[in-house]
Amino acid sequence: MSGWTPQHRHVVAASFLGWALDAFDYFLLVFVLTDIARDFNVPREHVALATMLTLAARPVGAFLFGRAADRYGRRRVLMLDVLLYSILGFSSGFAPTLTVLLVLRTLFGVAMGGEWGVGASLTMESVPPHSRGFVSGLLQAGYPAGYLLASILYGLLFTHIGWRGMFMVGALPALLVLYIRRHVPESPGWQPRVSSGGDTVNVLRRHWKLGLYAVVLMAAFNFYSHGTQDAYPTFLKDQHHLSPQHVSVIAVIYNIGAMLGGIFFGSLSERIGRRRAITIAALLTLPIIPLWALAGSPLWLAVGAFGIQFLVQGAWGVIPAHLNEMSPAEARGTFPGFVYQLGNLLASVNLPLQLALAGQLDGGIGAAMATVTAVVAVVIAVAVRFGPEARGGTLKAF
Prior knowledge:
The structure is a single chain. It contains 18 helices and no strands. The protein has 398 residues and is mostly helical. It has one domain (6-186, 197-386): Growth Hormone, Chain: A. Helix 1 (6-40) packs parallel to helix 3 (74-92), helix 1 packs antiparallel against helix 4 and helix 11 runs antiparallel to helix 12. The two termini are 27 Å apart. 60% of the residues are buried.
């Protein structure tokens, strides 16, 4: 990492950890969905609404925190965001009813929606341009890293602390605020602005065609990731009757694949271009789907899951750099995170959709996941070819 200063390393570490711990709090729910349903005596589809509401609320957070980051700075807004999602994740463990849990997970979604855009803009504006591809993959690898942490916690502690205890562990990310305050400088691409958030709205209005394209692309990307992640622990437990320990081991394996894929394809995009790297990863997903979703043994399911997540998160590893490079300079704190989370809003129906589809298909959850993933992989490969690419451009706030 030539040309890097200690400040560069601190910024990347903070943004990586911010996204990883955010994802950690989110993915705790997918491991205990069935257990929560049993405790509240409701169908699992009712609990799955929590993931839909979390994803649906994320655009609100992306817009509010993004506007604040464009006006007040990336660093202080990132600290506020991390503190909020930690408190809300912790509070989920005390929910007395499913309704309260759904409200808390919706509010958590607002905070979760703010982290990615603010952290990505802080990072991409701070690191040297030649490092963006690698850092993009590393930053996005924070998401499966959070999933990995959740899977380890589930395997080691779930039988001792239950689903409520797992959420209470979600308070730990708040410690990251202390690290950011002490070590992370403000983005060199941001300067204090006197203007109001209305300017951000005007920027987004002027670039509505780019914004619409980015939202559609990110909707496909979010179906791609959540379509391969959210139902998988339930698939392993309910359809293959694996123990929590076996589910945890497989989750660890496929999240290692996800982290490696993000870094590999993010770095590759620096050499062959963002769009080409995404296209390769998306199309290579197709031949792996049967092994991942339809295999009969835990061994082959683990192999297939490793391959799928290597490619899915490989394509995702390009996105932080790609969205920030195509973003209007005046709204970089808002645009990447906002279009990403609007795409998430459209894809928020993924888990309820897959569980409903599972009841209609002979192959159950596996067949539902395979169908959704195959469709969106093709959509991504086609859509990305018609979009812009600004690899290596200068990133300044205005």
